[in-house]
Structures are given as structure tokens and as C-alpha cells.
Amino acid sequence: MIMMLLGAPGAGKGTQAQKLVDKFGIPQISTGDLLRQNVREGTALGAEAKRYMDAGKLAPDDLIIRMMDDRLGKDDCAKGFILDGFPRTVPQADALLGLLKKRGLALDHVLSFEVPEAELMARLTGRRTCPACNSMYHVTANPPRKEGLCDKCGGVLIERSDDNDATISNRLKVYRDQTAPLKDFYGRNGLLCEVTASPGATPDMVFETALAIIGRKG
Ligand code: ADP
Ligand code: ZN
Asked: Which positions ≥6 away from 70 have C-beta within 8 Å?
């Protein structure tokens, strides 16, 4: 099974991806996590990408596509995978078709998580992440059991360097301008499933809705 998750920053892609990983036993491939890993390890790719990330801009398509070609070639992708944060532009979506086709694969589902923009701002400003295992928390909505520490692995939680007000509004604009058009792209070929999180819906409720939609589509 090959799934792709669409949604604005803060829409809950990462959280839902983790649930899908647990349910289907296939890996999550997050371009954001891959880029941050490159930044931490000080690779040339990381150094180039960091300039864009810190400004809330997208990294260049060719860099992302090369990184994904490499990642999709790894053994753990054999049974399927969950794409989180890729593609984010129409050229990336075109490139993905080629990356899948040369491996004899095709997308099964595109899930688009719909959340109002005011809610997105609130979620992103209180967000904390564990750099060791990529688990996500929120200071008020989803706090860890021990303040500042990851429930899963005990790692020290950090605020992502791009989770500040100026960068956040840029990322939301980039989403509207460059990524939201992908909904038409995938709507046209019947792959798009829109998952609307009603106000106050917990991550588990959103997950149940997503599963029901996938199930109906078959
Ligand atoms: P978000 O929570 O904003 O969705 P991600 O962790 O997916 O964050 O991505 C963080 C940053 O990494 C983006 O703002 C962008 O600079 C870069 N990035 C991630 N995925 C892509 C991509 N597919 N194309 C270009 N840049 C990307
Ligand atoms: Zn952790």
C-alpha cells in the first residue's frame, strides 16, 4: 500500500502518519524529517536545505526529488510506504509518478487533512518535537507526561527552529500557493480523500475518519 498525506503545516500529517505506520506496518517517509536529519548530520544537502527551511520556503525540487529517489530505493519500502510532506509542488508530483513507475508502483490513496488556518497557527506555536524518535507534542493540547521529555524514548523535546510566528505564516502561504493545487492534481485522477477534522476532534477520531474513508474507497 502506498499512501500520500497532504495538509497544511500543523494539520496533523505527522501524527496521523505514525498511526498509519502502527496499523499497516509500513514506513513513514517524511521529507521534513529527512531534511532535518541531513541538517543534524551536517551533510552538503542539509546545508543547502537549511537556508530554505529557516525562511519557511520550500527546498528546491531537484534536491528533494534526488533525496526521495534514494529513499524509495531502500529495502524497507518493499511492502509500501506513507509519504508525508512529499510531493509539495506540482513538479514534485510529476516526478513522483516517474519515481514510482520505474519501480512498477503506483499511489493507492491520497489523504488530505483539512484544518482551519486559525487552528493551524495555534497548533504550530505550541509544538514540541523529539529529535530522537520524531514524536510530536503540544504544550497544552498534547503535553508529554514529564515536562520537556519524550514519552516514547525519554529524549529531550525541542521547539523546531522553523516553528516561530514569521516562519509559520510563510509556511502557510507557501502551502496555499504551491501545495494546495495538488488537491486538483489528485482529484482529477480519483485518488483524493478529504479528511475534515471537526473542531475538538482528537487525533484518534481523525484517524478513524481517515480509515473509514479509505475503507469505503476500497
Ligand atoms: P511542516 O510541519 O511545515 O509540514 P515539514 O517537516 O514537512 O513541516 O517540512 C519542514 C520544511 O522542510 C518545509 O518548510 C520546507 O522548507 C522543507 N521541505 C519539506 N518537504 C519538502 C518538499 N517536499 N519540498 C520542498 N521543501 C520541503
Ligand atoms: Zn522520542
From this structure: none
Q: Which of 73, 82, 66 is nearest to 26 (CA)?
A: 82
Q: Is 66 marked active-site?
A: no
Kindly report the CA angle at 184 between 181 and 187, in degrees rounded to 5?
A: 145
Neighbours of 76 (CB within 10 A): 11
Judged against a pLDDT cut of 90, whether residue 30 lies above it is answered with yes
List CB contacts of 209: < 8 A, sequence separation 6 or more: 195, 196, 197, 201
Domains and CATH numbers, the chain: 2-126+163-201 (3.40.50.300)
Asked if 216 is an active-site residue, the reply is no
pTM value is 0.91
Peptide bond into 87 cis (omega under 30): yes
Catalytic one of 13, 19, 71, 128: 13
